[in-house]
Design goal:
This protein is an all-alpha fold. Helices cover 80% and strands 0% of the residues. It has one domain.
């Protein structure tokens, strides 16, 4: 049973952190916007990796129809995620605002690199909201349903 953060999600967060680290070293409006973004997004990503993303490690087993009693161990994390979901979504709204600030600073500075980073961050947030977060809730419901049988 795999309750670890899927490597694709870990690598995606690592890439975002690496790009943010570069932006944090910039001076002027880009650096300022990056610092404001970092104060929200870094703790948020750490919390996702701790509470939300481990459930997604079960997807390959679940997709093949394998549901075991041991999978119930993920349910407390999913419950914690659900109880904090509004907070996660509020972080996304604040992050979107900070990414917009970074995007505007990057465009004014003529920085394609940071314009692309800000846009990519916006897409990342939307994927989490539209796909990843609902999938976590579904995983919990599916495991509960299958274990009741």
């Amino acid at each position: 049973m795999n309750m670890e953060v899927p490597i694709a999600l870990k690598l995606d967060h690592d890439e975002l952190r690496a790009e943010l680290d570069k932006a944090l070293n910039e001076h002027g409006p880009i650096g300022e916007a990056a610092h404001q973004l970092a104060s929200i997004i870094l703790p948020h990503m750490a919390m996702e990796e701790k509470i939300a993303f481990p459930a997604l490690g079960l997807l390959p087993e679940l997709a093949s129809g394998d549901v075991t009693a041991e999978m119930a161990a993920i349910l407390p994390l999913i419950s914690e995620f659900i109880s904090r979901r509004e907070s996660f979504q509020a972080d996304h709204r604040r992050t979107a605002f900070r990414l917009q600030m970074l995007l505007e600073a990057a465009k004014k500075a003529g920085s394609d690199k940071y314009t692309q980073f800000a846009y990519r961050g916006m897409v990342h947030e939307r994927i989490e909201e539209a796909v990843i977060y609902p999938a976590i809730v579904l995983i919990g419901k599916y495991i509960q349903q299958q274990l009741k049988r």
